[in-house]
Design brief:
- It is built from three helices and no strands.
- The chain is mainly α and about 110 residues long.
- α1 runs antiparallel to α2.
- The chain is flat.
């Protein structure tokens, strides 16, 4: 016998709609910089900005729609650990670039 959901299956439909929305946004945020690069419609500086902006938005879409990380109280610790991870990565990358620049300056 099949179990019925108390909400009549609306939660599953809402989840599927969220995944579909995230998938469509991901496709759009992948295709837009691809078209900008392949057509050469933008200046080189604007193209680089377009690629980086789309990459940043792509990260937000992935976190929101697929990993379900948001600002709700239930996700507080997940969000804090994610921010801490970004901070550590920033320290490693920034420190490495700083050290390499210093070594290049001294050589």
């Amino acid at each position: 016998m099949r179990e019925t959901q108390p909400d009549g299956g609306r939660a599953g439909a809402a989840l599927a709609r969220a995944y579909l929305t995230g998938f469509c946004l991901s496709l759009l945020l992948t295709a837009a910089p691809f078209v900008a690069v392949m057509t050469g419609a933008l200046s080189p500086g604007a193209t680089v900005f377009c690629v980086f902006a789309a990459a940043a938005l792509q990260m937000v879409v992935q976190l929101r729609y697929f990993l379900h990380v948001d600002a709700s109280r239930a996700m507080h610790w997940n969000l804090m650990s994610l921010l801490f991870t970004f901070f550590i990565v920033f320290l490693f990358v920034g420190g490495s670039i700083w050290i390499m620049h210093s070594l290049h300056y001294r050589m």
